[in-house]
Amino acid sequence: MADIETIGWVVHEAKQDFKLEELVVEAPRDDELLIDMKFSGICHTDLVFQQGELTLCPYPAVFGHEGAGFIRSIGPKVKNKDLKVGDFVLLSINYCEQCKFCKTKHPANCIHGSKLHLFGTRPDGSCSAKLKRTGESVRSYFFGQSSFMKTNCVAETCVVKYEGSPDDAAMCAAMGCGYQTGAGTVMNVLKPTSDDSVVVFGLGTVGLTAIMGAKYCGAKQIIAVDIQASKLPLAKEVGATHLVNSREVPDIVAHIKELTGGTGVDFAVDCSGVIPVIEKMIDCLAMFGTAATVGVPPSGAKVAVDPLQMLLYSRKYVGVREGDSDPPVFIPKLVEMQKQGQFPVEKIIKVYDYKDMAQALHDLHAGSVVKPVIQWF
Ligand SMILES: [Zn+2]
Ligand SMILES: [Zn+2]
């Protein structure tokens, strides 16, 4: 197969705007698939890299790691023989399949995950695309997919077959990162029962899907917390039983204890990454409670915990990466839940034409959309 001409949103330097560029993609390698993206969700991590807050992926680079599209071709060494040209697939995390966590069905914790996701290259350091106008190599393997590109070579491990109409797939594009992170943290790691209470801090995509997961698990009390009052009604729509505008509550820990009859919460999820919020989240825990860090905190930051309280209450504070999802199993489950009305992600997305990236980012920052999804065709 010859090289393929395509387009993509390229970042040339930290803090520069995404720029729509003509790109040339090389033919997929034997263990890759060529994917024509139809949709791509925009995740906070894409913006962290655009802003240069993490510097693992040099520029120019194409980000995007919530792709959804059609298989255009399949390399002869792709192991999953269930996949056919023309199938519609959702793209998720990349992983090595060899380390002990991959082998035990915890690929979100792949020990090579950071390299496979964040460097923007294949494991051998190569890139799949170049700028057409200069021939300069572009980092185009972000999370094994760089889905802000209309057509790209994708690692096999990223690909999950989608059983449903491609026209309806916009709402599922973010299964591969945002949704599985929120829902998976609750459903795969915390696993609340009908006797448990859950609090979620930060009501973006991850927080709202954590609430959906808590409702699916049957948690008796689901407390949604945000500093923006405008975010609270949607949390109620997707399953929160109690809403807290933390700006209006002088002592959030005391308030949550009051809401839970004085005991504190059994499970807490922080999607904000804000250090004082994380510290308060831990202080909210009931006996034997677990708090999870899911939002990305600043590099090098430290959280203060009271170890005596940790001991006396048998508390746990854990980090959860990508919801401990095993995408080939967990994503089809979430898709099925969505079809059954148990995972109402259709309430949180808005679709933008691919040319309207700037508008999508504007709306995301303004808080008028939770999960922007760009549509390529
Ligand atoms: Zn691995
Ligand atoms: Zn993400």
Automatic annotation (TrEMBL):
Belongs to the zinc-containing alcohol dehydrogenase family. CDD domains: benzyl_alcohol_DH. One of its GO terms (molecular function) is oxidoreductase activity. The keyword Oxidoreductase applies. The lineage of its organism: Eukaryota, Fungi, Dikarya, Ascomycota, Pezizomycotina. Keywords: Metal-binding, Oxidoreductase, Zinc. InterPro entries: ADH-like_C, ADH-like_N, ADH_Zn_CS, ER, GroES-like_sf, NAD(P)-bd_dom_sf. The keyword Hydrolase does not apply. This is Enoyl reductase (ER) domain-containing protein. Pfam families: ADH_N (PF08240), ADH_zinc_N (PF00107). Its cofactor is Zn(2+). It comes from Neohortaea acidophila. Residues 15-374 form the Enoyl reductase (ER) domain.
